[in-house]
Write a structure and sequence with these properties.
The protein has two domains: 1-104, no CATH class; 135-265, Glycosyltransferase (Alpha/alpha barrel), CATH 1.50.10. Helix content is 49%, strand content 3%. It has helices at residues 4-17, 23-35, 72-85, 91-104, 119-132, 140-151, 164-168, 179-191, 198-210, 238-255; strands at 224-227, 231-233. Strand 1 and strand 2 form a beta hairpin.
Amino acid sequence: YPDVDDTAVVGMLLHRNGRPEHAEAVERARRWIVGMQSRNGGWGAFDAENDREYLNHIPFADHGALLDPPTADVTGRCISFLSQLGHEGDRPVIERALAYLRAEQEANGSWYGRWGTNYIYGTWSVLCALNAAGVPHDDPMVSRAVGWLVSIQRRDGGWGEDQRSYDLGRYVENAESLPSQTAWAMLGLMAVGQADDPAVLRGAAYLQRTQGADGEWQEQAYNAVGFPRVFYLKYHGYRLFFPLFALSRLQNLQRGNSRKVSFGF
């Protein structure tokens, strides 16, 4: 089924690759994503305007998850894609989405993540989008999110969140740090100019220290979501490619003596 989140990520990849034969596919993805924006400025994963909350309260509602309302993580990815493309005509679309994200920010500075666990995932997704869209890094929305991510870093330098955060509606620390979530937090911080922040460097040290002799990282926890509070998913690649992504980005920024992340993702 057509997936908004995946389309945005693939579109960013093809655009960054820059090959002329990808231009038509990127443009088709752009037009489709613009057309999938909901009236409130956000994007859902598969549908637009699918947000009639009363339907989740009928007796036969499937896990209380009949709907596909806009969420911060998917909205962030769409902003990142459209901002990376840089079409001036899409700016009103992006501005509506930024207003949606501003309204959705939690009191503690984080954002809810529907498709990955949970507030760490959502906050990373949004920070990448805010950077791509040109939101100043000293904007209070950004500063609050950075402060929250730094505040929940664990003593070993990593980050880890438990699925119980979906049950309780607030961040719940996992029993141990997780490579994938550590990478998400690092990527979010680096996106908004924090590559030399001690928290990022401690996260990198955690990833380097926990990498196995075979080059892999291990984690047992579920890292993604089917239906919140009902069942969760484990994407086995997350423990590998997200740490590689974070460490590679940090290395590239350090080599270039730069804090600027120039891409949407």
